[in-house]
Structure formats: structure tokens, C-alpha cells
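Q&A log
Question type: sequence-to-structure
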Amino acid sequence: MGTLPSRRTLRIVSARDVNRIFPYLSTYIQDPSAALYVEELIIDAETWPRPSRFSKHDPPPPSEEESAIHNSIKEYLRTIGLSPDVTQQMIDAFTWKVTPGIDSDHHGFVNDRGYAAAATVIFLSLCKNLTHLQVYGVEYAYFIRDFLLANNYGTLPSPALQHLREVRIESYTPQDSRSYDRAEFLEHFRYFGRLPAIESYTANACLEYQINLDLTPPGTSNIRKISITNSDVGSQVLGSIIRVPRALEEFTFTAGGLAHFKGGSPVLLPKTLGKCLLEHKDTLRVIDMDIHNTLFGVLPDEEDVRDPYMEEDWDDENPDYRIDKYWRLDEASGNGKSAWSEDLEDTRAYGYTMGSLHDFVALESLSLPITALLGPPRPPREGHYYYPRKENTPPFRLVDALPPNLKSLRLYDYQRGADALWDEYVHELKEKMADKFPLLAVLEGVDEPCVANSQYGEEAGYDEIDPPPEVLKRNARWKEQYMTTEQ
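Response status: OK
Response body:
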């Protein structure tokens, strides 16, 4: 085997990649210092080859040298520190890949997907200088979830990912570029949230759909920057995400831009989001939420999806499935507040808004739809989806609700003439901004509308004539991966 070139980035996102990774496994096992060059790892477990009874797998018999390397890899798997059962499963998956005459398991882990997962665990363990990680589907991948949980909660003998700064959740080659991909958002903070160097969490084109974990104890993560774009996430989960960090500094969320594979569109309640952001009023520097099409005045003021009948049924014999050992660890290290944002005290009037942001003293850049700041337009218009259930005059004037140290303000989807009260408050802001906000140098969306993702409806991803930019980007990446002969 020749000497492999040093690689800054490793990628395992296709069947081709899975079949090309063994030389790197071999090199890094024999010379762990070679793995220190790797700074970025890209994993898409959902695009790994799926087992099939028609697939052929018959590797040649290994040489004596290759057998020695195989034994070294198996021995390394035993030292990682996962449970005996998981360790043996990884060894079995690897053994199948390199040994002739072993049948694959079409429904288990003795196949290419199991082998790729075992290899990923080795790379995560050996590549000590990883700073960037892009993953998708690891929540459902054999072995990887076990490794990430054990590593994040400090139970491995040799900790990994100690220099990891950024995690990105996005399918590298989505199966359908027109629609969102499912993701277990809150699980990700269990995988990476406690790592010492972690700074940012980014997700793109993802969907909250029948997730296993819909809330978690707040104040447990070292992550300071969160960006979730072109996604579909409800108020409860998004609020929980906001509250996971100990001190959140930047928060970006853009709703829409693709299509839900089962139809429908995201719905967000501004009071829930406002109460959750309020937890970080002393540290937030940037808020950018393009959520105009998710705000509906016909809905309750605040998210609370607890099922009292289900809660009555939980006992020692039938415990709440969400409260496992990791929940208990997070609960012990968190800020002690309820995981349910609805339990947080109301410290200000909300109405149909996110509440006043006047005491967000660190906030310098704010981008919000005017509906989030001032509520839906008045008077209600027949058939309009903002039709409110009750009186919805905002409980404050716009100039009294903005942060004092603001440097940049963008109002999404403000249309002059849509609401006389909006026009009055915006005019007042323009008149008084020099005195009240001396640092405010950028004001967008006032003279010309600022329309971003709200221009795309719930079926936008399926528009073949004028597809959204996110669909075009995903299509281009798919073509790069599958329609070129060289990588």
C-alpha cells in the first residue's frame, strides 16, 4: 500500500466513499499522527448503501500483512470504550467487510452501513484535531449515536472532538432536493453540546417530524451560536433549542423555502419564542428570524402541548420516555428551570407579539418580521390568515420595544399601508432613531419591503418553473456527487 496524501477533509457520503475509506483506516491505525491532519469530516449516513439480498460482496482473501492490519483495527475498536455489545457489533460489521464467505445481514449491522458506521467511529476517535463536522442521519446510524453520547458526557477513556468548534446538520446529497430532511434537533445537543471548544450549531433544510425528543433541560450547552435555515420547526422544539445554551450570543432561524413531504407549513407562536429568547437577554448580540409566514393570529398565545392524561399515566413502571440518564445529567448541570417554556414567569405584556426587547442590552443586530414585533395587521381582513381571536393592539410602541444598543435593524415583510398603526410606529421610529438609538446605522425594510423566505409557500420546493434557491443548490450538489466520474 502506497503512502496516502495528507487529508484536511474526509467525506463518507456515498457507496463510492464507503468503498474507498479502508486505506485511511489502515493508515491512521498504523500511524495515528497521520489522522491529526484531518480538520473536517462530512458524514451522510442516510446515503450509505442499504443492504439488499441482490448485492454482491465477496472480498479477496487478505494477505498476511492485511490480516495483521485487520486485527489491529479490531483491537482498536475494543479500546474505544463503548459497551461490550456495541463493540462486538462494530467488530462483526468490520469483519464482514474484509472477510470472504460471510453473508450480510439485511436488517441489522453486518453490511455496508454497519461497516461505514464503525469506520466513522474510528475516524471520530482518531482525528483529534477536527474543528468542523457536517453530519446527517447519525441519530439513526448504528454505533455513531452511542459513541457521540458517551463522548459528550465524558465516559470514554480517550475523549474525542475536543477541538470541535462547529457542527452542521445537513444532508450532503438529499434523497429529494425539493423537501426537508428529518432531524432530531435536540438530540444533537446531547452529542455535541458539552464539548469544550464547541461554538456553533448549524442546521439547514431540516424538518421536525415525529421526533423522539421534543424538549430538554435548559442551560446545559457550551454552544453560543445557533443557525437553523430553510427549515420547518414548531414553537416548542425551537424554544427548547433556544434555551439549551448557557449563554446564547447569536440566533438565526429562517422558516420555509422547501416543501413538507406530507404537506403543511410551520407554525410559530411569538410569545413562546419571546420568552425563550428572554433567557439570553444579557448575551444575545444577533437575532435574525425570517418567520413571517409562520405567525398566525388565530392561534393560542403560547405553546403548551403537554398531554395531562399522558402525564397522569407516567409512573415508576411506565416512566416518561424522555427522562433517561442523559436527561438526568443535563438536569443536574442545567440552570434549574422548567423544561417547559410555558412555566416561565410572564415578566412583560406580550399580546400577539414576541414582547418588548428593550432590556436586551447586548443586542446589536435585529432582523424580525414586523408582525413579530407589533402583532398581525389591524383591522382583521376577511379570509386573511392573520385573523385574530381578540383585540391585538401591541402593548408597547415600537421605539419603546427596541434594544438600546442596536446597530442594525431589518423589518421583514413590512408593507406601507397594510396597517395604519404599523405605519405610525415606523414613522415615529424614523423620527426618533437618532436620539433614542444613536448606534443604529442600518435600517432596512422600511422604505422598500424586505421579503425573504416568506415569498415561498408550503409547496415551494415542488415548483419546477421557479424553484427556490435552496432547491437549486441541493440539485447542484447531487449532480456533483452522482454525475461526475471523478471526485
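Response note: The chain has 15 helices and 13 strands.
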